[in-house]
Amino acid sequence: MFFNEKLRMLRKESGLTQEELADKLNVSRQAITKWESGDGTPDIENLKQISILFNTTIDELVKEDRDVQFENSEKYSLVQEIEIDHSKHFDIKICKIYELNIIASAEEKVKIEMLSKENLSENYKIKFDDLYNRLDINIKSEAEIDDVKVNILIPEKYIDEIELNSKIKVLNISNLDLKEFEYDGALKYLNVNNSKGKIVLNATMSDVEVNYDKFEGCLEVNTINSTARVKLPKGTQYRTVLKGIKNQFIDAVNVEESENVIELNGVNSKLMVTE
Q1: How far is residue 31's CA from residue 7's CA, in Å, rounded to a whole number?
Q2: Per-residue pLDDT at 71 exceeds 70
Q3: Which domains are present in the chain?
Q4: pTM of the prediction?
């Protein structure tokens, strides 16, 4: 269950209309509508007020199930792969989808698998453009399907830099040793599992939550009028770098000598660090 679903459920269980909840939080009804539709997320002060009002914690509000659940056991799939034999820069462009998993593999080929309860072959096309030092991957669609999940397996020994442009609800990165991973577009959740290196999030006007099972490297967040939440394992040390205009860290503990870095850039944005 995502935050917007939790908020809607808590409001209805309390017998409140959107207008009544807005009055209690001293925000507009349009803000409640935006939060419940998943088009926006409250800032940290509003999250505190919501947690007090509904007698819960901020962690419980934002901690959510990030797995795609298919209503039917039978799923349509669309699979395409290409063999490579040396390191490449991966430039990936994907239409709007629900979930993307980027995983390091032991094979010497890039494999893309798309899953849905709808027929994918009629609406989606996967295209590879294999240049010598770069592999362009383009996934296009003539129609948007709400539950599409994409798995991209990349040879571990050939991973160099990855650029990704998309609009995704959940992005999972697993077992990657990255020189740099750069994401451009709207994003709700980024889960980094057993991976290290530099991650750059250009999520303009998009609240994003980042979860690490370990933090080793650099996280750079570039955003405007938004709130980013970064959850790290307990005891993680990191150095903070603040750039841009009217930005601020919340609950961040700066350790000057740490090699791990969290950087916030952009305009009028906040980055909250939790353990």
Answers
A1: 12
A2: no
A3: 3-62 (1.10.260.40)
A4: 0.74
